[in-house]
Specification:
single chain, 219 residues, 6 helices, Rossmann fold
Length: 219
């Protein structure tokens, strides 16, 4: 099995330990919302995960927290139709957004939760960063580009995260990494570092944990 090193700046031991402690602590489901009035009140700083259907959002949340069933995973794209909120040790809010694109659901349902997601991304003041997940096997797609544009227009900080990196050979992965980095570099609200992960192999998980810990309330 090939393990891919994270790209960009390496975390120091203190950052890695901060990430380990944050995600090893309590992590509780707090709310599920399918409309704006159902959103929980803003309190903790929040980060969220966005991406097309079946990109691996739930698997990544589970890998980060070390809990297999925290976020529901499904082989059927589009099964997560709500915004799912978690509380990470009363230090950080974690939000799993509905997937976009190719969902096996009625068109009106897709439009409703796409609209909700857009409203959330554009108007949630407690949101510190959006992690936009991109399937390494597909690269940046039309839906991803639309979300990138929305985040830029809303001045919401976001970072690209490649998922399923273990599914590609090193040469192919390097090619998609370079292409994704080139796209990211054209967006004003984007964090410059590309995170390369595999929930199954564990690649990049420690690095991403350490980065996310920087947004948590310090104790």
């Amino acid at each position: 099995m090939v393990h891919h090193a994270p790209r960009g700046q390496e975390l120091d031991a203190e950052q890695r330990e901060a990430g380990r402690l944050l995600f090893a602590g309590q992590c509780d489901f707090t709310a599920a919302a399918n409309n704006m009035p159902a959103l929980p009140p803003m309190g903790l700083p929040e980060i969220c995960f966005a991406g097309r259907s079946n990109v691996g959002k739930s698997s990544l949340v589970n890998a980060l927290t070390g809990r297999r069933m925290l976020a529901r995973t499904s082989q059927t794209p589009g099964r997560t139709r709500q915004l799912i909120f978690f509380d990470l040790g009363q230090r950080l809010g974690l939000v799993d957004l509905p997937g976009y694109g190719y969902a096996s659901a009625p068109k009106t349902d897709i439009e409703a939760w796409t609209k909700l997601t857009r409203k959330f991304l554009a108007g949630r003041q407690s949101l510190q960063r959006v992690f936009l997940l991109i399937d390494a096997r597909r690269g940046v797609g039309k839906g991803d580009s639309e979300i990138m544009k929305l985040l830029d227009e809303s001045a919401v900080s976001w970072a690209a995260v490649l998922t399923k990196a273990d599914k590609l050979k090193p040469e192919a992965l390097e090619k998609v990494c370079r292409a994704t980095e080139a796209t990211v570099a054209t967006h004003v609200a984007a964090y410059p570092e590309l995170f390369v992960t595999s929930s199954q192999a564990g690649d990049g998980i420690e690095h991403l944990r350490g980065h996310i810990a920087g947004f948590a309330l310090q104790k």
